[in-house]
Amino acid sequence: MSETFRPVDWIYSSNIYEINLRQYTPEGSIKAFSRELPRLRDMGIDILWFMPITPISREKRLGSLGSYYACSDYTSINPEYGTMEDFIALVKEAHTLGFRVILDIVANHTGWDHHWTREHPDYYRRNQDGQFFDPHGWADVIDLNYDNPHLREAMIDVLRFWIQTTGVDGFRCDMAMLVPLDFWKQAREVLDPIKPLFWLAESEEIAYHEVFDATYTWKFLHKMEAVWRHESPVAGLDEVLDYYDTMFPADGLRVYFTTNHDENSHSGSEFERMGMMARPFAVLCCTWNGLPLIYSGQELPNQKRLKFFDKDQIDWNGRYELHGFFRTLLQLRKRNPALRSGDPAVTLHRLHNSFDDRCFAFARRAGDDQVVVVLNLSPDELRLPISQLLLQGVFREVFSGNWLNMSTAGDLVLPGWGYAVYEKING
What we know:
By secondary structure, the chain is an alpha/beta fold. The chain is built from 13 helices and 18 strands. It has helices spanning 21-24, 30-34, 37-43, 84-97, 116-119, 149-166, 181-191, 218-228, 235-247, 261-267, 270-274, 278-287, 323-335; strands spanning 16-19, 47-50, 100-105, 109-111, 141-143, 170-173, 198-201, 214-215, 253-256, 291-295, 347-350, 359-366, 369-376, 382-385, 394-397, 403-405, 411-414, 419-424. Strands 1-2-3-6-7-8-9-10 form an eight-stranded parallel β-barrel, surrounded by four helices. Strands 11-12-13-18-15-16 form a six-stranded antiparallel sheet, covered by helices on one side. Strand 6 (170-173), helix 7 (181-191) and strand 7 form a beta-alpha-beta unit. Helix 6 (149-166) crosses helix 7 and helix 8 (218-228) runs antiparallel to helix 9. The longest helix is centred in the middle third of the chain and has 18 residues, at 149-166.
């Protein structure tokens, strides 16, 4: 992060919940989703990320309903979801409950019948035949032209509109690396004085931390999947995490996840891609040095691929089996300074041991506060000698409530695919 832009102070112990409005409820509307706010707040969710809520282009639409990311108007609400008044009311209610709200902004491209194609065709890039186009093989969208200063001004006006009209607290910027970095700098310089915002880039390019508060971790996601498929040893996780620590700025926040809308719809649920490792990897994403991202339905847990271009509602059954699982982890993040992200006062140490081929363990410390995480990435019971972890003091396991004296205990026993998260008891 550059000295020019600093993250908002509320981000460091936060988490993000991605909302797929279309698939969330039978109605697929803003009003219907608002009924879920108290439950999500109880689960410990801090930031609500709404996938694009703008109208969807009809020309070259994919599927029956089209892609959320092929908009026809940047400053309107998709009528399938409700009205602008509905969204304003939802943001207000969310703020009352203690949430922050960020909006998905698709700045690189629009749908083919966006009103700018008629009113400002110069806002778009052209191919060698002078036609609108997209170079990435996405048939339902066309690229905007950031060489045009008027397009830049118009896009900044779009962002300003959502801040001033609805009161959102930031933006998740779709495919941010496809938009010139200097545009994002220009936008922040204009918009930050209006309201301190959280800026999340869908990007893993290091340079984008010059502007953005947080970026993605696809490299780590794919490594977790490779470990499950036995295409990488557990040590492969360390290789990626060491790369992040070495190459990315120390105060550059990273977003860790086991699934999101793209991965679920196009590659499969986390259970398809990570199998029995999905749960311990979710623990890892919630406790490593970063911001955890949870996707709609993970608390169910949702085990199916949700169609991307058609209605395909999450099969809620009213049980929310992982509500308590995520609540435990997210509340721990809030109360324990050792899990604060991007804080130079926090140290993180891998706890290597004789089971490194199937055990991933680490400790995070901030002063007297300490959290220890142990993951069993194998189907076999793990009996890990506590002495190998070189830890002292009394700890409480946050899921079971059991106490453990690291100085006198013998073995730490975890079942296959098991996990344990220990919080040090001080005083």
